């Protein structure tokens, strides 16, 4: 279907329908049981519940069972009771415009920064939209410098690529995201803060991001105390904002923290509508929704000129990188970066474990003179990892293994190249020049 036809179809889908009323037949936890809508309601539709005392709540239909609709509340249900009237509301959509730049908004587009609502765009976009057709998508663009030497050398990225940042809590993912926001030459930056701690929002915006970066950014945030549908919607809303600017031909950097909390929100929703738990308590729908979200990032339709370069953080519980969400996300994305707590405790920041990190586009990104440098650096670091404990204990004796001797001599210089304080900018040429000097024994 041509882009104009798709836009028209999306606009028609968002037109208000005839007002339909139903009745609340049950409330419990997040779940709301509704009756009276018949075949006119569908999964994904939203309903508005209003109590006689004026209390309101929004819920989203997630399942049908025994002739009744089962919805998930998007906010507190306090003050609501059985028998209330439920009114079918429009499907979720956002009217994104340039006025959203520099703003901090919730997933519904409501300001969180104390300022008036931004001017809406001309055409609302559905937040739950499909990815561009695979056969019509543009290919990845040229190399995009990330401003972080460890990533530019060992996990280079092209415009439109999707990369995962895998780490346990407290290792420094948010600080690394702020470094990326300042080091990437993007037209627009979109932040998706899913399940963020409430007290950290202003700290991140004012200290890590700063006014200059915020001016070309849109921050979509759902804090940890919001209902599961709102946390899930934060990821979809941020993706919708990124798609708006991509379709205008702009280069967009999407930074999402975190995919794991998005998956946890999906798990809450699935269990609330009695979906059977499968892999480690995650319902099957979680692993259906993950690719639907992640595949929307990347280049747009051939000819639009824009692309979404996306970095998604993934929380790995107990440093288990094979847990279900991490394993699923790693298989969908175009590469992964591992942040290691041991490296952080040793004082090297960013704590990127370059031996466990990779970019699937590296072969097409690295120049002929850069590939041997990366291969040699990996070999040195791998060999040094084998003898590091002996060196620390003073049990290592030089002269028995020439490769190990060279690794012991050069590894500290390579580690020094990888270390980079917050606020220091870099580019790929500088990064590889520093690496070449370190491997040359300088």
From TrEMBL:
GO aspect biological process, one term: protein secretion by the type III secretion system
Pfam families: ATP-synt_ab (PF00006), T3SS_ATPase_C (PF18269)
Keyword Nucleotide-binding among record annotations: yes
GO molecular function: ATP binding; ATP hydrolysis activity; protein-exporting ATPase activity; proton-transporting ATP synthase activity, rotational mechanism
Keyword annotations: ATP-binding, Cytoplasm, Nucleotide-binding, Protein transport, Translocase, Transport
UniProt domain AAA+ ATPase: residue ranges: 159-344
A Gene Ontology cellular-component term: type III protein secretion system complex
Region (Disordered): 114-139
Location in or out of the cell: Cytoplasm
InterPro entries for the chain: AAA+_ATPase, ATPase_a/bsu_AS, ATPase_alpha/beta_chains, ATPase_F1/V1/A1_a/bsu_nucl-bd, ATPase_T3SS_FliI/YscN, P-loop_NTPase, T3SS_ATPase_C
Catalytically driven reaction(s): ATP + H2O + cellular proteinSide 1 = ADP + phosphate + cellular proteinSide 2
PANTHER family: ATP SYNTHASE, SPI-1 TYPE 3 SECRETION SYSTEM ATPASE
NCBIfam families for this protein: fliI_yscN
Protein name per its UniProtKB record: Flagellum-specific ATP synthase
Organism name: Neoroseomonas alkaliterrae
